[in-house]
Structures are given as structure tokens and as C-alpha cells.
């Protein structure tokens, strides 16, 4: 089944069950001090859960563009090393705002997966919240009893607060959840160990696909829980993971969500992607054994989606806030290409066309802003590539001069300040070589620099602009000082 059809069937199913289908909210949030990016489908409905305002319908479904690169949900470090965590992904979701609750949600989820998508029941496991003394929330007997009518009891697993109590951030609506996991291992491997033991255990082929959250609480700033005015349902299913299960693959990158992008990278670089080496381990010695080319390709085809959609939603790469997060993601991708794919010229921008052709029908913003997004990425690439080589040479030099395994924080700051190396990028490169750096020293240098720039603040300029969707704007280019991109110019036409 093609990914386009997977998405459509989800929406059609919930539409036929009385849900209003709404568009995805932008990936970047501009008016929520607790959250920088949409990290889940529910973020745009948060206020309704809190009892502020009324949704257009008590039942809603959609697919939401999500980004998990900061805050409570941050998967950046796993991306490329495993095969099922992305920075940007789509979350299919259905919601009840004070309408249906556990029974309907669980039954619909089961019907959709087993009857519409026809996933064999013997490949599925579900989990139920075991309760938390700390928060005074009991074991979810109700969910257990509903699942019992649908699935063998030995396929129901108890889950702890980490896995089965969902929270958007440190504050906000939350509640116990029930998750569905799919076992895609080979028959031989299944015979060796029950899938149940691999659930929530970082096995790349026993993955969580769908979370059904029963929103009943609000986490307050002081950490305590209060009951929400009504009971709600909030579900989120990873679209790319579902495609993997339905397309008979064992990696999200082998689905048609990613293969056109991978083919384009292969075409540009002349290198081949061989998918079957993906690992889940964060252990360096294991990562070392993985094929660096494959990791780099996964990182790049993942990151370009995050960056392209963020730019299309109006968040340009910049030196502050959300813009800096986007710049860091892009620079991370550029460095992976430079070091492991030998790409010395801008090329990531060329993937935007592929992305727009593939996703443009459902997400028109990527199609209508294709040229703009391409130009911004190309400029960013060109700018960073100008200093990347020198910066990497400096880093090698610093490493050669270091006794022990810890590099000076002042040097990492120099890389940041002069060569535009985000500190997490430097940390990543150092980690690959078995080094770390002194973070305190970095901070000291950063504070010194801030003090210097405060003194010169009268002449400082804003370095990013928010695009207003719908406005026709032409990208003119960046103004540059010695090494850093300082001002992004956008001229209305
Ligand atoms: P995991 O345990 O695999 O990290 P999660 O429990 O953090 O997932 P939820 O917050 O429950 O994920 O989000 C709902 C669904 O979104 C998950 O069941 C999964 O299918 C999908 N999902 C979560 N994080 C990612 C990601 N980084 N990339 C792709 N899909 C994801
Ligand atoms: Mg997670
Ligand atoms: Mg989980
Ligand atoms: Mg989950």
C-alpha cells in the first residue's frame, strides 16, 4: 500500500466514524511559551482540553507535522542511528473533546489496524498504564478490560509512567495511555524470544506505532496534577512507522516516504544506500561498526524534511530561538554529507524538489514555496561550507594537541563563534573520535561574548523574519559579515 493511501485510509476511517478532518497546524509554534515546535498532534488542541474554547467538532482527525528536536521530546540523537525515530514526522491522530472515551477509541484503533489495514493480530502487542503512586493515579483497569475483549491477555503489557503516562511538556494536559506495538521480526527471531519482552526495549523491529492517550489531567507549574473539566481522547500514530508495517519493510527508510529522497542522494553522490545495517545502540563502539555512508544518508533525508517544512511554515534558519534549532539541524546534515558522502558543494537543497513532488499534494505549502525553500537551504549550505573545512581542520588540530579525552571549551567556542559550528555539532564530531569538551569553559566564553555584544547593542540587527503565509515574497539573499550570516532579506513583490 502506498503511503498516500495509508494516510487517506486513516482519515477516511475516522471521517466515516463522525470525525471532522482538519489540516495540520504549522510545525512551528509562535504563541506557546511552553513549546517551540509542534511535537504531537494534540498541541494545537491543548486549549480545548484545558476547557478554554470549543473545537469545531467534538470529534476531529488529522495528520500533524511534528518535530522532536527540543524540550521534553527530543529524538535528534537517535536519528540516523536507528530506523524509526525522525526529527520531522507525521502523526496521524483522532480526538474526542469530551465526547467518546476509552471504549470507542480502543475499539476503533483495533478495527482500523486489524480489519482495514489487515495487520495480523499475532504481530500486535498492547500496553496499559500500571499506575503511579507518586501522582496518585491508579492502574488503568478500564483499558485492560476493554483490551481483554479484543486480544489475548498475555499480549497486554503493563507500562510505567515513562512509557504509559503521556505528557506534552513539563506542564499541560496529560493522562494515562495505552499503546500498540507491532512485531516485524523474522519468524526465526520470533521463535527465539517472545515479542512481549522486546516491547519498549529499543528493538528496531518491535516498535510502538500508536498511542491512545486518555486525557484526564493537567500538570501544573508546581508539578502537581489537577483533574481536567472533562475526559478526552488524544491519539497519535507514527505515519512512517505504520507505512513500514504495511509495506512489509523493517526500516522506515525503506518505505516510499523516504526512498525517492534516498535515490536522489544516490544519484547526486554516486554512492549506494544499503539499508540493512541499522542499529539502535548509542554505544560508540557499535556505531563505529555501522556503515557511515548509510547513517549519513539517513540523517540527510531525515533532516531535509524537518528543515524544509519549518522554512515553508515561516521559520528561517537564524542565530536565535527556533531559527537556531533549524540552522543546527541543517548544519548537522551538511557536515554528515561533507565528511561521509564527500559532498563539497551545496546539494541538500536539490532534495526539496523531490520532497515537494512527493508531499505537495497533501501539504501544499511545500509545493507553493518550493523555490523559496530551495534557495534558503542552498544559501545556508553555501555559507556553512565556506567555513566547514577550515573548522574541521582546526578541530583536528585541537584534538591532536589535547592530552586526555576532554577538549578545551574555549576552542569549541571559537569554532562556534568563528566557524559557525553549533556546539552540539562539535560534540557529535568529538564523540565520533572518542572525545568530549569542557562545557563550563564554553559557557564562560559565551557569557563574555554576550557581554561584549550587549555593550554594542545599539547597532545590533534582527537576523530573522517571520514569513506570513500567503504573502508573495521573493528571496533576495543574505547579507554577510566575515563568517556569519547576519541578516536575511526578504523583499515583498
Ligand atoms: P518512542 O517510544 O518510540 O520514542 P513515543 O512514546 O515517544 O515513541 P509518542 O509520544 O507516544 O511516542 O507519540 C505517538 C506516536 O508517534 C508513537 O507511537 C510513534 O509511532 C510516533 N513517533 C514518536 N516519536 C517519533 C519519532 N521521533 N519519529 C517517528 N515517529 C515517532
Ligand atoms: Mg519517544
Ligand atoms: Mg514510547
Ligand atoms: Mg508513546
UniProtKB/TrEMBL annotation:
Function (record text): Catalyzes the attachment of alanine to tRNA(Ala) in a two-step reaction: alanine is first activated by ATP to form Ala-AMP and then transferred to the acceptor end of tRNA(Ala). Also edits incorrectly charged Ser-tRNA(Ala) and Gly-tRNA(Ala) via its editing domain.
Organism: Flavobacterium cheongpyeongense
One CC-aspect GO term: cytoplasm
Domain remark text: Consists of three domains; the N-terminal catalytic domain, the editing domain and the C-terminal C-Ala domain. The editing domain removes incorrectly charged amino acids, while the C-Ala domain, along with tRNA(Ala), serves as a bridge to cooperatively bring together the editing and aminoacylation centers thus stimulating deacylation of misacylated tRNAs.
Lineage: Bacteria, Pseudomonadati, Bacteroidota, Flavobacteriia, Flavobacteriales
Catalysed reaction equations from the record: tRNA(Ala) + L-alanine + ATP = L-alanyl-tRNA(Ala) + AMP + diphosphate
Cofactor binding annotation: Binds 1 zinc ion per subunit.
Protein name: Alanine--tRNA ligase
Required co-factors: Zn(2+)
GO MF terms held by the record: alanine-tRNA ligase activity; aminoacyl-tRNA deacylase activity; ATP binding; tRNA binding; zinc ion binding
Keywords: Aminoacyl-tRNA synthetase, ATP-binding, Coiled coil, Cytoplasm, Ligase, Metal-binding, Nucleotide-binding, Protein biosynthesis, RNA-binding, tRNA-binding, Zinc
EC number: 6.1.1.7
Domain Alanyl-transfer RNA synthetases family profile: 1-493
Subcellular location: Cytoplasm
Family statement drawn from the similarity comment of this UniProt entry: Belongs to the class-II aminoacyl-tRNA synthetase family.
Enzyme class (EC, first level): ligase
Name of encoding gene: alaS
GO biological process: alanyl-tRNA aminoacylation
Amino acid at each position: 500500500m502506498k503511503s498516500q493511501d495509508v494516510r487517506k485510509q486513516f482519515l477516511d476511517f475516522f471521517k466515516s466514524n463522525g470525525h471532522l478532518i482538519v489540516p495540520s497546524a504549522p510545525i512551528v509554534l509562535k504563541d506557546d511559551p511552553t513549546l517551540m515546535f509542534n511535537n504531537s498532534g494534540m498541541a494545537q488542541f491543548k486549549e480545548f482540553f484545558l476547557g478554554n474554547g470549543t473545537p469545531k467538532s467534538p470529534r476531529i482527525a488529522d495528520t500533524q507535522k511534528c518535530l522532536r528536536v527540543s524540550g521534553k521530546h527530543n529524538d535528534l540523537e537517535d536519528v540516523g542511528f536507528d530506523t524509526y525515530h525522525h526529527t520531522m514526522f507525521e502523526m496521524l491522530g483522532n480526538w474526542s473533546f469530551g465526547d467518546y472515551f476509552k471504549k470507542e477509541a480502543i475499539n476503533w484503533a483495533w478495527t482500523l489496524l486489524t480489519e482495514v489495514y489487515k495487520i495480523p493480530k499475532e504481530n500486535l502487542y498492547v500496553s496499559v498504564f500500571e499506575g503511579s503512586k507518586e501522582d496518585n493515579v491508579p492502574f488503568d483497569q478500564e483499558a485492560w478490560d476493554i483490551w481483554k475483549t479484543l486480544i489475548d491477555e498475555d499480549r497486554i503489557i503493563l507500562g510505567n509512567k515513562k512509557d504509559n503516562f503521556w505528557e506534552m511538556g513539563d506542564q499541560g494536559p496529560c493522562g494515562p495511555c495505552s499503546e500498540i506495538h507491532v512485531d516485524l521480526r523474522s519468524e526465526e527471531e520470533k521463535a527465539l524470544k517472545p515479542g512481549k519482552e522486546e516491547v519498549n526495549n529499543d528493538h528496531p523491529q518491535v516498535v510502538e506505532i500508536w498511542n491512545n492517550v486518555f486525557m484526564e489531567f493537567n500538570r501544573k507549574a508546581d508539578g502537581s496534577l489537577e483533574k481536567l473539566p472533562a475526559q478526552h481522547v488524544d491519539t497519535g500514530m507514527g505515519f512512517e512507522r505504520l507505512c513500514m508495517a504495511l509495506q512489509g519493510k523493517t526500516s522506515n527508510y525503506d518505505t516510499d516516504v523516504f526512498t525517492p529522497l534516498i535515490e536522489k542522494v544516490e544519484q547526486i553522490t554516486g554512492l549506494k544506500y544499503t539499508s540493512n545495517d541499522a542499529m539502535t545502540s548509542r554505544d560508540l563502539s557499535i556505531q563505529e561498526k555501522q556503515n557511515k555512508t548509510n547513517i549519513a544518508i539517513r540523517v540527510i533525508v531525515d533532516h531535509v524534511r524537518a528543515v524544509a517544512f519549518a522554512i515553508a511554515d515561516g521559520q528561517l534558519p537564524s542565530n536565535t530561538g527556533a531559527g537556531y534549532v533549524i540552522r543546527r539541524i541543517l548544519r548537522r546534515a551538511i557536515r554528515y554529507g561533507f565528511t561521509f558522502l564527500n559532498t563539497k558543494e551545496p546539494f541538500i537543497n536539490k532534495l526539496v524538489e523531490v520532497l515537494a513532488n512527493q508531499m505537495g499534494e497533501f501539504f501544499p505549502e511545500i509545493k507553493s514555496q518550493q523555490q523559496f525553500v530551495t534557495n534558503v537551504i542552498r544559501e545556508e549550505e553555501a555559507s556553512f561550507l565556506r567555513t566547514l573545512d577550515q573548522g574541521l581542520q582546526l578541530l583536528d588540530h585541537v584534538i591532536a594537541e589535547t592530552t586526555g579525552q576532554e577538549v578545551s571549551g574555549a576552542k569549541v567556542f571559537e569554532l562556534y563563534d568563528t566557524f559557525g559550528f553549533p556546539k552540539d555539532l562539535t560534540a557529535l564530531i568529538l564523540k565520533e573520535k572518542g572525545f568530549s569538551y569542557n562545557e563550563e569553559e564554553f559557557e564562560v566564553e559565551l557569557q563574555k561574548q554576550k557581554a561584549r555584544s550587549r555593550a554594542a547593542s545599539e547597532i545590533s540587527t534582527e537576523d530573522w523574519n517571520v514569513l506570513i503565509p500567503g504573502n508573495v515574497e521573493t528571496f533576495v539573499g543574505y547579507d554577510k559579515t566575515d563568517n556569519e550570516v547576519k541578516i536575511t532579506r526578504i523583499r515583498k513583490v
